[in-house]
Design a protein that fits this description.
about 240 residues, alpha+beta, two-stranded antiparallel sheet, 9 helices, 8 strands, about 45% helix, oxidoreductase activity, acting on paired donors, with incorporation or reduction of molecular oxygen
Length: about 240
């Protein structure tokens, strides 16, 4: 039996073409586009903050303790859970990226029944209620006066260990019963991808003066794409 998602649904006797189309599209948007968009914004931020890029590259070297002459493929295949777990600053930098550039910038919900929100506001069945992670990540009363500053250190304690924030404050993965099922997988995927790239390459923007902006879509994509130079790291 094939191991792709579509084949698994068909094998379980799910044959409604509309349902299959919707579920596969949902997996693609949630599991691919979100990660790709986040990594693009992550590389953009590293180009704007070269010292952070070098800090992460050094952390990757120390966490993996692998030989300098290892090939690209061998290094990628040798990434262990233990090594990934040691990359606390990388985890913080990815979280900081998601705070300022959440993969889903606005998230609307439909009320299934009449209800009263915690602040006393009444909603009716069928009402749409939306929250905006993009704006929330920049609110000073939530994140402090430096809310618009890219600062991974805000996620680390005095020992340099990553500290989770409440998902009701850091809403990039939603919260409560609707929290993203793929959160931990997404972090692992992004950390592996980032570690491999930063172990072998140093990145710079093609045009340092160009203003990078977002494109309004379901996901927070970079308008016109991200144009980078990649330079091989030596040693």
């Amino acid at each position: 039996m094939k191991k792709d998602i579509l084949s698994r649904f068909i094998a379980s006797n799910v044959t409604d073409p509309k349902y299959l189309r919707d579920i596969i599209l949902n997996f693609i948007i949630a599991g691919r586009d979100t990660t790709a968009a986040t990594l693009s914004w992550f590389l953009y931020r590293l180009c704007k903050h070269p010292h952070i890029q070098e800090t992460i590259a050094q952390e990757v070297r120390e966490a993996t303790k692998l030989k300098d002459n290892m090939s690209f493929g061998d290094f990628a295949a040798s990434m262990t859970e233990e090594a990934i777990g040691k990359m606390q600053y990388l985890h913080a930098a990815l979280s900081e990226t998601l705070r300022l550039h959440p993969a889903v910038p606005m998230d609307p919900k439909i009320c299934f029944s009449d209800d009263t929100l915690p602040d006393g506001f009444d909603v009716k069945k069928g009402d749409m209620v939306a929250y905006v992670p993009y704006a929330m990540g920049r609110m000073k009363f939530i994140w402090g006066d430096d809310a618009e500053v890219f600062r991974p250190e805000r996620w680390l304690n005095n020992d340099g260990v990553f500290q989770n924030e409440s998902p009701f404050k850091f809403t990039a993965f939603q919260a409560g019963p609707r929290i993203c099922l793929g959160k931990e997988f997404a972090y692992s995927q992004m950390k592996i991808f980032s570690a491999v790239l930063l172990r072998f390459f140093r990145f710079k923007l093609v045009d340092q003066t160009k203003v990078v902006n977002y494109r309004t879509m379901i996901n927070l994509h970079i308008k016109d794409g991200l144009h980078l130079h990649a330079f091989h790291r030596i040693g």
